[in-house]
Write a structure and sequence with these properties.
Elements lengths: L8 H18 L3 H16 L14
């Protein structure tokens, strides 16, 4: 299943890489990192197609 995102896909990938780098450099515990990654992936999954802006709905 292909997922489409609002906004620039490259910007989304850059933001994810930045998050990974910052968490690695901060020495954040692996369990916390895994929880945050799941939250990030869930946010990405909830972005709807069809617009040039990026809106996230997080519960």
């Amino acid at each position: 299943m292909e997922t489409k995102y609002r906004g620039n896909a490259h910007q989304i990938l850059v933001a994810e890489e930045l998050l990974n780098t910052l968490m690695d450099r901060a020495g954040i515990q692996k369990s916390f990192f895994n929880r945050m990654r799941l939250v990030w992936l869930n946010m990405r999954a909830e972005v709807s197609p069809g617009s040039s802006d990026m809106s996230l709905n997080v519960l």
